[in-house]
From TrEMBL:
Residues where substrate binds: R29, Q30, A31, G32, R33, D79, Y155, S210, H330
GO biological process terms, semicolon-separated: protoporphyrinogen IX biosynthetic process from glutamate
Coiled coil regions in record: none
UniProt KW keywords: Cytoplasm, Decarboxylase, Lyase, Porphyrin biosynthesis
PROSITE patterns cross-referenced by the UniProt entry: UROD_1, UROD_2
GO MF: uroporphyrinogen decarboxylase activity
Pathway membership, UniProt: Porphyrin-containing compound metabolism; protoporphyrin-IX biosynthesis; coproporphyrinogen-III from 5-aminolevulinate: step 4/4
A Pfam family of this chain: URO-D
Species classification: Bacteria, Pseudomonadati, Pseudomonadota, Betaproteobacteria, Burkholderiales
Name of the molecule in the record: Uroporphyrinogen decarboxylase
EC id: 4.1.1.37
Source species: Achromobacter arsenitoxydans SY8
Lineage top rank: taxon: Bacteria
Cellular compartments per GO CC: cytosol
Amino acid sequence: MSAPRLKNDVFLRALLREPVPYTPIWLMRQAGRYLPEYRATRARAGSFMGLAQNPDYASEVTLQPLERYDLDAAILFSDILTVPHAMGLGLDFAEGEGPRFAHPIRTEDDVARLEVPDMDKLRYVFDAVGVIRRNLDGKVPLIGFAGSPWTIACYMVEGKGSDDYRLIKTLLYSRPDLLHRILEINAEATRQYLNAQIAAGAQAVMLFDSWGGVLADGLFQQFSLAYTRKVVAGLTREHEGRRVPVIVFTKGGGQWLEDIAACGSDAVGLDWTVDLAAARRRTGDAVAFQGNLDPMALFGGASAIRAEARRVLDAFGPVGKGGHVFNLGHGISRFTPPEAVAELVDEVHQYSRTLRG
C-alpha cells in the first residue's frame, strides 16, 4: 500500500533550502514530560522503556504535541541509547537519575567483545515508525534520529551522564586505539539504524551530537566529526520518491560550524550561543539551519516569548538561498508551561509569514 500524500511538506522543503510560505517549527523533546498527557501515558506504560518499546504507546506520545500545537514535523519517540542497549549494555532509566547502563565499557576485553547489534533487536523502533506514519496519515513529516557515535560512546564508557567526562577522556588520551574501535562500531551501527528507520518510513533524520562540545579543538574533528561524517555518507538519501534530508546537531559546536557544515548533511542544528546571521555568512548558505531559541525563553511569559521568536527570525534575515527551521537550541525543559509553546508556535508562523509577505 502506498504512503498517504504528505499534506504539509514545508519542513522538508526548508531543510532543502527550497521556497516556503513561512518558517516551519518543531521542538526537540516536543513529546515529553512538560505535557500532562505524556505523563499519563508514561504512567500507563509503567516505565520509560515500557513506553519506548511499545509501538502503540510510542505513536501515542509522538502525536500528542501535534494534537495541541500546529507543529510542522513529528519526531519519533525513542531514545538515543537504544543502540547500545541492543549491544547488551543493559539500559535502564531510574526515576530522577536519568539513563544508566548495567554493563558499561571499561576494559580492553569489553571493547573486544563489542559488535554492531542485530537490527532485529531494534525492531520495536522500526515498528513504531510504521505505526506513527499510519497514524499521522500524511499530516506532517516524521523525523527519525540517533545519537552521534561520540555521544553514544560517552554514555557507553561513563555508564551514565557525566559532569566531567573523566572516564571517556581518560580512554581518549591513554588508549585512543580502543576509543576509535568503539567509534567505528558505533558509526556502522548508527548507519544501519538510521537507514532502517528510513526504510520503515522516516522522512528526515537527525544526528544528535549532544556532547561534541566537550572536546578540545582538533579532538572534536578526530573523535566526533569524523565519525558523524561516516554515518552521513552511508545514509539512504532517497525514499518514497523524494529526498530524505539529514540534520546534524552539535551542542556547543559553534566554533566548528564550517567543519560541521561540510560533513555532508542538508542542515545544521545550532544552539542558542550562535548568531544565525553570522552562521549564514560563515557557510555561504551552503546548508539550511535549525534553531536556535534558548529553551529558557519559554519561561519569560507571552510577550517575551513572542519578542524572542521575532528576534531569532530577524537574525536569520531574508531567506534568499538559505533555509531555516525554527527550533530550540536544545531540548525543551520538563518544567515548561504548555501554553508557552502555543505562544511560540503561533508567533513563528505569523511573523515569518509577514517577513515573506
